[in-house]
Design brief:
This protein is an alpha+beta fold. It is built from 13 helices and 16 strands. The protein has helices at residues 24-27, 49-54, 70-76, 78-89, 101-109, 122-129, 131-140, 159-175, 202-208, 266-285, 318-325, 348-355, 393-408; strands at residues 7-10, 37-40, 61-64, 93-96, 150-153, 181-185, 194-196, 214-218, 224-233, 236-248, 251-258, 290-299, 304-311, 333-339, 367-371, 384-390. Strand 1 (7-10), helix 1 (24-27) and strand 2 (37-40) form a beta-alpha-beta unit. It is globular.
Length: 412
């Protein structure tokens, strides 16, 4: 689904060290669900792979790099690097999770250009992924109402400028019959770096982030968090699908997707597509390549949709879309979520034993796929992923809820 021809998925996560929800080394394990060829490191827990083979969801091939950094490890292993380089010369394309200078140096050393990958040049991806740049890009192509009313502040801003912006946005909120205004950093993900301006912690937030650009914006509340995803390659933009997001406050926890985008009303799917397509084209004009996802908020009462950000990288919904593409049946629905299991849950065998008949069965078109098993033993951020597969959306969400209950309950 993501990348024509032979793709080597190299989803090491680099540069997200300041994100509190991310034991980054373990998130690489989600790539095991993509199929095709997957590159893993010495830290990657592959204990789930035999079971994935049983249910026809394993990768076709795993390249094991004997180092905690796959790019350093490849450079230090001449024979393995030569094998990978030969594949690229024969037309295989690397796909990175989030291209940084590390990945850029790797492909440059191999003599590749970004057009020969399934990812994007870091400079372009960083620009599109910056919330301030995206708002300016939307305005430049005439999409002036794509985002909620907002003000962008660049350092060195002072408290008076921030409070003036808050006052302006509070008036805008009142005009829209809304209550809250939020401030957010332009460069963080997963709901990090966001706060309501009425919070008692707002002054502390400003002090902590005084060296960063901020957006002061009307909060659309209540809302349903939604998103869609595209894939750009060889000058073509391919629409992947829409999702409804699962959130805890501002923090993203998972997604629900379904065949024919049935997870959202048809009109909402169409409007979100029409809002994002011009931005995808503008990104392509900048040289964008690879996965790009857009987050949005949908206020059902007012029938409003506003964009909030673009994820110029592989996203959490990339993996369930890839799994859905491999299921072989329709209709389908997939609900996935990150959970924090009880302390007794430390291995795939313990997960498998407790989920029992809830585990995915391709014969039944039904069940739960655990993933990111290695994070169960993370010293400070224990978690794992659950992906519930069914034929209908409600059934997939019920499966997800029951699986989470079983893995988070305390055993007597």
């Amino acid at each position: 689904m993501f990348g024509s021809g032979n793709v080597i998925h190299m989803h090491q996560i680099v540069g997200f060290d300041d994100i509190s929800v991310l034991p980054a080394a373990r998130y690489l394990e989600r790539a095991l669900l993509l199929g095709g060829c997957v590159c893993v490191t010495s830290e990657t827990d592959t204990s789930i792979v035999p079971w994935l083979k049983e249910v026809d969801l394993a990768p076709d091939e795993i390249i094991r790099v004997p180092h905690k950094c796959m790019f350093t490890g490849l450079r230090e292993d001449a024979s393995l690097l030569a094998e990978v380089q030969t594949r690229f010369a024969q037309g295989a394309r690397p796909m990175f999770f989030r291209p940084t200078e590390l990945e850029a140096g790797f492909i440059e050393g191999l003599g590749l250009t970004w057009e020969k990958t399934a990812s994007c040049e870091p400079r372009v991806a960083e620009a599109i992924g910056a919330k301030d740049f995206l708002r300016k890009l939307a305005a430049s192509i005439g999409s002036t109402k794509a985002f909620p009313p907002h003000t962008i502040l660049y350092p060195p801003w002072d408290a008076d400028q921030v409070m003036d912006a808050v006052a302006d946005m509070n008036q805008q909120a009142r005009d829209m019959r809304l209550r809250n205004v939020m401030a957010k950093r332009t460069d963080l993900v997963s709901g990090e770096g966001m706060i309501r301006t009425g919070s008692y912690q707002f002054r502390q937030f400003l002090s902590k982030n005084r060296d960063h650009a901020l957006i002061v914006e009307v909060e659309i509340d209540p809302h349903v968090p939604i998103s869609n995803q595209w894939f750009v390659q060889d000058g073509k933009a391919i629409y992947v699908g829409a999702s409804r997001q699962l959130q805890d406050g501002f923090v993203h926890k998972g997604n629900v997707i379904a065949s024919d985008d049935r997870v959202l009303p048809e009109g909402i799917v169409r409007r979100l597509l029409e809002m994002t397509q011009p931005l995808v084209i503008a990104a392509m004009d900048m040289g964008y390549n690879g996965v790009i996802g857009f987050d949005a908020v949908w206020n059902q009462e007012r029938d409003w949709i506003f964009l909030t950000e673009a994820n110029a990288r592989v996203t959490a919904s990339t993996y369930p879309f890839a799994v859905a593409h491999r299921l072989g049946f329709a209709p389908w629905a997939v609900a996935n979520k990150m959970v924090v299991p009880a302390a007794w849950c430390e291995t795939f065998n313990s997960v498998r034993g407790h989920l029992g008949s809830l585990l995915y069965s391709p014969r039944r078109h039904h069940g739960v796929v655990p993933y990111m098993i290695g994070a169960l033993t993370h010293p400070t951020m224990r978690r794992m992923g659950l992906m519930a597969i069914a034929e209908e959306q409600r059934q997939s969400e019920q499966l997800l809820a029951e699986a989470e209950r079983r893995l988070t309950e305390l055993r007597g």
